């Protein structure tokens, strides 16, 4: 999840550079779009790790220990999502940091704003993973939903290319993806010199997505629910 974005990045940088320069960013290298875009794309794939944290325990037969323990549903969710959050955060920071090292990604805006956006988006991904677990009776279904919805949200959100090049209908649909708001914030930080204050609207919308995902997950998830495998 860290290596593959870096392997693929140089192949897309030339096209992204041409696109950004056509939009008026004469000094753009293309890394401003590709590095964070791939980071977000592969972060959605890493949601599988969140799912595995739950379904592995079902498969190993250790979930019953939680069912008979004093741990509440909130305790279980908090414990597992804390680890998942750190994994997501480290992955995104590593992709961006190594992208700066290898491909010259140099945001013109506030580094603090970029870290804040990455931190909040990691919360969104964890909440998304919990929601998928709560809605899926089996691992296979959870993985399929995670990949399908994750790739859809990343693609329509502009992780693979600026939404400015999308047709009108697709640009409208993009607003329904948390990846869109993350990419909008990152692009402003990378290209327009944005500060924390500048990207607060995008951060607020990402927080709303996280809250919605978390609410669905918390409502549907129960420690004593039975889950299994499709195979």
Largest beta-sheet details: none
Classify the secondary structure makeup into a structural class.
mainly alpha
Beta content: under 5%
From the alpha carbons, calculate the radius of gyration and give it in angstroms: 18 Å
- What sort of overall outline do the alpha carbons produce when their principal axes are compared? elongated
Number of helices: 10
Quaternary structure annotation:
single chain
The tally of domains stands at 1
Percent helix: over 70%
* Number of beta strands: 0
User: Average pLDDT, to the nearest integer?
Assistant: 90
Q: Gap between N and C termini, in Å?
A: 26 Å
Order of helices and strands: HHHHHHHHHH
Low-confidence stretches: none
Features of this protein?
231 residues; mainly alpha; 10 helices; 0% strand
Structure description:
This protein is mainly α and 231 residues long. It has one domain. Helices cover 74% and strands 0% of the residues. It contains 10 helices and no strands. Helix 2 (31-45) packs antiparallel against helix 5 (73-103), helix 2 (31-45) runs antiparallel to helix 7 (139-156) and helix 3 (47-60) runs antiparallel to helix 7. The longest helix has 31 residues, at 73-103. The radius of gyration is 18 Å and the shape is elongated. The two termini are 26 Å apart. The mean pLDDT is 90.
């Amino acid at each position: 999840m860290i290596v593959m974005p870096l392997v693929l990045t140089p192949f897309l940088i030339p096209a992204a550079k041409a696109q950004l320069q056509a939009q008026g960013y004469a000094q753009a290298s293309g890394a401003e779009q590709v590095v964070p875009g791939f980071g977000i794309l592969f972060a959605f794939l890493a949601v599988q790790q969140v799912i595995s944290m739950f379904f592995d325990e079902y498969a190993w037969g250790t979930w019953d220990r939680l069912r008979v323990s004093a741990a509440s549903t909130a305790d279980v969710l908090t414990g597992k999502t804390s680890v998942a959050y750190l994994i997501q955060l480290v992955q995104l920071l590593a992709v961006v940091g190594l992208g700066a090292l290898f491909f010259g990604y140099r945001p013109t805006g506030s580094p603090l704003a970029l870290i804040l956006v990455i931190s909040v988006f990691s919360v969104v991904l964890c909440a998304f993973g919990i929601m998928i677990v709560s809605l899926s009776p089996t691992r296979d279904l959870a993985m399929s939903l995670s990949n399908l919805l994750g790739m859809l949200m990343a693609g329509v959100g502009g992780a693979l290319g600026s939404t400015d090049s999308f047709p009108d209908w697709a640009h409208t649909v993009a607003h329904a993806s948390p990846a869109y708001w993350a990419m909008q914030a990152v692009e402003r930080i990378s290209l327009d010199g944005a500060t924390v204050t500048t990207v607060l609207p995008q951060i607020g919308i990402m927080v709303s997505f996280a809250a919605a995902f978390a609410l669905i997950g918390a409502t549907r998830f129960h420690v004593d629910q039975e889950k299994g495998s499709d195979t």
